[in-house]
Specification:
DUF397 domain-containing protein; 1 helix; alpha+beta; flat; four-stranded antiparallel β-sheet; 21% strand; 4 strands
Length: 73
């Protein structure tokens, strides 16, 4: 996994689970997938920090979300 990424060079994708009301929005970037990482950030603060996950961890998370393993509260 490479830690040498520049999130400002990333193309960001908003989660399809994010609401349109400007509330809880998550964005991820597939830009660095070949480097083995997926940066994730809060869309309300795009200049803020990004958390970087290994692609295997991100894939497991997305699979769990799709299976409904995280019920809405």
């Amino acid at each position: 996994m490479s830690a040498d990424i520049d999130p400002t060079a990333a193309e960001w994708v908003k989660s399809s689970y994010s609401g349109s009301n400007g509330g809880q929005c998550l964005e991820f970037s597939p830009t660095f997938v070949l480097s083995g990482v997926i940066p994730v950030r809060d869309s309300k603060t795009p200049q803020g920090p990004a958390v970087v996950f290994p692609t295997t961890a991100w894939s497991s998370f997305v699979t769990a979300v799709r299976r409904g393993e995280f019920p809405a509260t």
